[in-house]
Design a protein that fits this description.
Helix content of chain B: 10-25%
Distance between the termini of chain B: 43 Å
Order of helices and strands of chain A: HHHHHHH
Shape of chain A: globular
Structural class of chain A: mainly alpha
Radius of gyration of chain A: 19 Å
Mean pLDDT of chain B: 71
Low-confidence stretches of chain A: 1-17, 104-122
Oligomer: heterodimer
Structural class of chain B: alpha+beta
Order of helices and strands of chain B: HHEEHEEEEEEEEHEE
Low-confidence stretches of chain B: 40-79, 86-90
Largest interface: A-B, 50 and 39 residues
Number of helices of chain B: 4
Largest sheet of chain A: none
Mean pLDDT of chain A: 77
Strand content of chain B: 25-35%
């Protein structure tokens, strides 16, 4: 993520822009923020919630909340971390709503899709794309909590301490959750023809 | 068997899925309408964000999704969003505008409402006095006011030749928006929604047209 792409820096003292200019600049900066992080947040929500409508709902809520609270953002963390935190909170809320809605048990962590997909394609790029597609399918076999923890750790690159704040669990618990999920993913990938991950 | 960290490296490089076209316009519109975040917490029912508007809004935000009967080639499914008034309010007053979008494509694309640069997008509104077209929140065409505009009694039609990629959306207004004050900033979706709210103009937002 290129933090520099989002220009929310304060103007230098004595150089406050006119209100209209400042408003326009803020609007442009907010557009940049949406353009920079929108797809990443949508992807996170889509993979965790597995429903594109819910994922877009959350995406919009994240940026509405960000727009509301941006002035109070204290920069104690990276802007991206702050946005991802909002997204994770909202995803967890939605997971709870889904659970209430469906009153279904979460799939067990090792209940992954056992269908073996051929990993063909001579070109390395094609093979990697297939590998990533299979990994997405394997992630769908994890519980929502495990999937969220794995993506927060490796895709969003949050530290366990940062995750602990937003996921309302201890860093140790989250590390354990991730550590247990990785072998499940590896076994799933092996079944899909990727033994060396 | 496993290379250390190979799986972690793959996870870090998972490609992002593209968020649905027009989501940024919907966020801007919700911001302009003053939709409070507290009113749009995740709901058990799966509803677009527009539905979640609260009573404190300067503009009553609500949704009615209409799937317009499609002409197999020329028309794609169109979902209109009635921004104001809400369907309930509309029951006690005149019907809100209706909007339809047709893409005159060089090579018709199946599925989503999509166009290519050079195609002509024809937007038709009934019970409306003005049409405006936006790309990424910026006003790019209006009727009346731009070439390709045709108006009749309560009927507005704008033929817009697409010149750039990006998601387009259109809004039909009734009554038309008042003229911009002199030296006002360039018209935008945000500003137009705010001004429409001030004059209590009825508004219907078209589905997004993805220009590739």
């Amino acid at each position: 993520m290129d933090e520099a792409a989002v220009a929310f820096d304060d103007p230098p003292p004595g150089h406050d822009p006119p209100q209209d200019t400042a408003t326009a600049e803020a609007a442009v900066a907010f557009d940049d923020l949406m353009a920079t992080y929108g797809d990443t947040i949508y992807s996170l929500c889509l993979r965790v919630l597995r429903n594109p409508i819910d994922a877009e709902d959350i995406l919009q809520q994240v940026f509405l909340e960000a727009h509301r609270d941006l002035a109070r953002f204290e920069r104690r963390s990276a802007l991206s971390t702050w946005l991802f935190s909002i997204a994770i909170h909202r995803c967890k809320d939605m997971i709870k709503a889904q659970r209430r809605r469906h009153r279904r048990l979460e799939a067990a962590d090792d209940a992954v899709d056992g269908v073996k997909d051929p990993a063909d394609g001579p070109a390395e790029q094609l093979a990697r794309r297939q590998q990533l597609d299979d990994l997405v399918r394997c992630l769908e076999g994890l519980s929502s909590d495990a999937c969220l923890a794995v993506l927060a750790r490796f895709k969003l690159e949050l530290s366990y301490n940062e995750m602990a704040v937003v996921l309302n669990a201890t860093a140790d618990t989250l590390q354990t959750r991730v550590t247990r999920a990785l072998p499940v993913l590896r076994r799933c990938m092996e079944r899909k023809g990727w033994p060396s991950v | 068997v496993s290379e250390p960290n190979k799986l972690e490296e793959l996870l870090a490089h998972l490609p992002d899925s593209r968020a649905p076209a027009g989501w940024q316009d919907r966020v801007r519109a919700a911001i302009a309408a003053g939709t409070p975040v507290s009113d749009i917490r995740p709901q058990p029912s799966r509803r677009p964000l527009w539905i979640a508007g609260g009573s404190a809004l300067a503009v009553a935000v609500a949704i009615a999704i209409y799937v317009v009967t499609r002409d197999p080639v020329a028309y794609d499914p169109v979902a209109d969003v009635v921004i104001y008034p809400t369907p309930t309010q509309a029951n006690n007053g005149p019907s809100p505008p209706a909007i339809a979008v047709k893409v005159q494509a060089h090579e018709p694309m199946a599925g989503a409402l999509a166009a290519s640069v050079g195609d002509t997008v024809v937007i038709t509104a009934e019970r409306a006095d003005e049409l405006r077209v936006y790309r990424a929140g910026a006003l790019i065409a209006r009727c009346p006011g731009d070439a390709g505009c045709h108006m009749g009694a309560g009927h507005v039609e704008l033929s817009h030749v697409v010149t750039a990629r990006g998601a387009l959306s259109a809004i039909a207004f009734r009554p038309a928006l008042p003229a911009e004050p002199p030296a006002s900033p360039p018209a935008s979706l945000d500003a137009d929604l705010a001004r429409a709210a001030e004059v209590r103009s009825q508004m219907v937002l078209s589905a997004s047209i993805e220009v590739q």
